[in-house]
Design a protein that fits this description.
The chain has 283 residues and is an alpha+beta fold. The chain has 2 domains: 17-163, PH-domain like; 180-263, SHC Adaptor Protein (2-Layer Sandwich), CATH 3.30.505.10. It is 27% helix and 27% strand. It contains 5 helices and 13 strands. It has helices at 15-28, 112-127, 138-163, 188-197, 253-263, and strands at residues 32-41, 49-56, 59-63, 73-76, 82-83, 87-88, 94-100, 103-109, 204-208, 215-222, 226-236, 239-242, 248-250. The strands form 2 sheets. Strands 1, 2, 3, 4, 5, 6, 7 and 8 form an 8-stranded antiparallel beta sheet that branches. Strands 9-10-11-12-13 form a 5-stranded antiparallel beta sheet, with helices on both faces. The longest helix is centred in the middle third of the chain and has 26 residues, at 138-163. The protein is globular.
Length: 283
């Protein structure tokens, strides 16, 4: 007779984190420089919200869960003008503020050491120079130097790719715009609620499909009365097929979004959560 031993059932083996990393790499198209938990808010009237955060290139990607393969929000920090000193709060966490050309972003790390490290990596990739060494450990500076060299090479490759493409009629899409700005890792119901509650932010959301392999478009039409519709977007090799009465095949997800915008003569607008100042609305 078999008896219970108190052992927990075996968890999935190690390949799972690797698959998550590969999927994030595929979606973002950017190298991973630093990652960890950060709490974020865009205005002082909001509460901080914690995300698993990745610094890829000059973009911050925010994930609702450490194991989520797709990000829920992203932020381009290439327009960073300055960052405040890292300062502790009453709970022992460490805060600092990124000054961007279009507003501010408040960040909170677990402690001052972690906050200084986040700030150091952010300054390294946005300013293409190492931050002041007095507040960082030798090991941290070494890793930042490695990231600095990688980012310099990435910028050179990106500039060459965009400026010299004799065999292309159109310039190639840059890695910074791999996913449309209106992509959100949300369910059908969540997308519906986002469109209903924030009409000023737009009326078209690109989201993962129910099978997690394909995509879907959720739109909110303002006709005689608001109407919500959902469209399947199937991934076929290097193309994407919109499931309409007559299928439409397009080369990229950005083209899929553009198709809906142009076909409705601009009545459909990508849903974009803006970042920024305290005077701005939540979206």
């Amino acid at each position: 007779m078999l008896r219970g031993t108190g052992e927990q059932p075996k968890e999935n083996p190690q390949p799972a984190p690797r698959r998550i990393f590969q999927e994030r790499q595929r979606i973002t198209g950017l190298p991973l420089y630093f990652q960890g938990y950060l709490s974020v808010r865009r205005s002082r009237c909001q509460e901080f919200r914690m995300y698993w955060t990745e610094l890829r290139g000059t973009m911050l990607f925010f994930y609702d869960d450490k194991k989520a393969p797709t990000y829920s929000q992203k932020l381009d920090i290439s327009t960073l003008t300055s960052a405040t000193n890292v300062y502790p709060d009453e709970n022992g966490s460490a805060q600092f503020i990124l000054m961007l050309s279009n507003g501010e972003l408040e960040l909170k790390a677990n402690d001052c050491e972690c906050g200084k490290e986040w700030k150091g990596f952010i300054l390294t990739v946005t300013k293409l120079s190492l931050p002041p060494a007095e507040s960082l450990l030798p090991g941290q500076l070494t890793r930042m130097h490695e990231v600095l060299e990688k980012e310099k090479k990435r910028r050179i490759t990106l500039n060459n790719c965009c400026s010299t493409s004799p065999n292309r009629k159109n310039p190639p899409s840059t890695a910074l715009t791999t996913m449309p700005v209106c992509f959100y890792a949300v369910s059908r119901q969540e997308a519906t609620e986002m469109l209903q509650k924030n009409p000023s932010c737009g009326n078209l959301i690109l989201r993962p499909g129910s099978d997690s392999k394909n995509y879907a478009i959720t739109v909110r039409h303002e006709l005689d009365a608001p109407r919500l519709k959902h469209y399947k977007v199937m991934s076929k090799g290097t193309s994407y097929v919109i499931e309409l009465e007559r299928q439409v095949t397009l080369p990229s997800l950005q083209d899929v979004v553009s198709y809906f915008v142009t076909q409705t003569r601009g009545n459909l607008k990508p849903f974009v959560i803006q970042t920024h100042t305290a005077e701005d609305p939540v979206c």
